[in-house]
Amino acid sequence: MSDTVNIASPITLNNGVTIKNRFFKSAMSEQQSTKALLPHASLARLYSAWAQGGVGLIVTGNVMIAKDAMGEPRQVVLEKGVDLAPFSACAKAGTENGAHIWMQLNHPGKQIPKFLNKQPVAPSAIPLERGLEKIFNTPRALTELEIEDIIRRFTDSAVLAKEAGFSGVQIHGAHGYLVSQFLSPRHNRRTDQWGGNAENRMRFVLEIYKAMRAAVGDHYPIGIKLNSADFMKDGFSEDDSMAVVEKLSEVGMNLIEISGGTYESPEMMGKDAKAEPQKESTKKREAYFLDYAEKVRQHTASTLVVTGGFRSGVGMNDALSSGATDMIGIARPLAVYPDLVNRFISDPTYVVDIKRPTTGSKLLDMAAMLDISWFEQQMHRIGHGKPLKPNLSPLKAAMGSLLSTGVHAFKQRRA
């Protein structure tokens, strides 16, 4: 990659679609659905703020493909028979100012809290561990017919997203959700065509992609969010991930976003959310998964996105000029400063400083899941037209989450 490439440079995907700059707004939990699980009007205002703020490609919070498979309350669901009007409003808002907006599509698999579903499903009947078995029931292994039905549901949702006006779709294949579960030898111990060896474990995601591609056509963008690794013993390894990336690239995947971790080992939250310190190399380069991206670059011609850790224009431009990533994934800073991209483009030396919210009590922070709920409250403020509040009280954010979502807001949550 030429060293002249920078954050303001346009990029053309392998299907000919051009994004106006290198900024990729990664998915975050939004918690802004109606009682009917449709997008609230606040979501359109939120997407408009990001589009007007200069983002080249916006990815929505994860949209579930079935109302009986929700990972948490107040998620948006897109399946056959729903009213597409509020989705179209979001798509229109997210494509203002020349931006693109892709819908992230997801099925949680076993990561469904007990209060939402008494009998979750997964590739194999293996419970979550590390204390999570208290919150999530042991799943039932999917039948082959059910697997085929879920593939169809992913495809139906992609078709509906295109019909509603979204610029593309992203498959959520990271963070321990269903696609990730199929890829992991720790969670997928099937002995049929959907499990066992690495080739069979990746069959599920490949069949989702192939079915989507046949339904939406060759020129409609499809991307995926994929773990670099699960960071769990006997889990999805870097070698596994690179093999999947290589295969996805071979079949034509347009964009691959690199993340990492699962609910049992939440690496995607960033090393600062765990007890151990960051590596010095990570601090210097900012992004958590940039070293992995440099390795995986040898295995794919698809557009690569690295998300997590970027805070300075200099760090972003260095990552782009090195060729390790094609786009800069940003999430939480955009929940606080929706015009952040415009700031970086007007001043490439700009640095954003987002401190981790805390009430001063680790126990209360964990109970309120402040690493998620504080940023959700910021997005609520944007969506409801309230003034920006970077110094929002963590305690007030926790209470706001309780009031808006109910007691379930204080149960375990995912990113």
Helix run count: 15
Top-tier CATH class: Alpha Beta
Beta content: 5-15%
Specify the structural class: alpha/beta
Helix content: 25-40%
Helix and strand pattern: EEEHEEHEEEHEHHHEHEHHEHEHHHHH
Q: Tell me the number of strands.
A: 13
Q: Which geometry do the CA atoms define?
A: globular
**CATH fold title:** TIM Barrel
Mean pLDDT: 88
Radius of gyration computed on alpha carbons: 20 Å
Largest sheet: 8 strands, parallel, barrel
**Intertermini distance:** 32 Å
Textual characterization of the structure:
The protein is an alpha/beta fold and 415 residues long. It has one domain: TIM Barrel. It is built from 15 helices and 13 strands. An 8-stranded parallel β-barrel has the order 3-4-6-9-10-11-12-13, surrounded by 4 helices. Helix 10 links the parallel strand 12 and strand 13. Helix 1 packs across helix 14. The chain is globular.
What's a quick, concise take on this entry?
This protein has 415 residues and is an alpha/beta fold. 36% of the residues lie in helices and 12% in strands.
Strand-helix topology:
Blueprint (H helix, E strand, L loop, with lengths): L10 E2 L5 E2 L3 E3 L15 H12 L4 E3 L3 E2 L20 H10 L5 E7 L14 E2 L17 E2 L2 H21 L3 E6 L4 H6 L14 H4 L1 H14 L5 E6 L10 H14 L3 E5 L20 H6 L4 H7 L6 E5 L5 H10 L4 E4 L1 H5 L3 H7 L15 H7 L1 H14 L10 H12 L10
Parallel strand pairs: 3-4, 3-13, 4-6, 5-6, 6-9, 7-8, 9-10, 10-11, 11-12, 12-13
Antiparallel strand pairs: 1-2
Helix pairs in contact: 1-2, 1-14, 3-6, 14-15
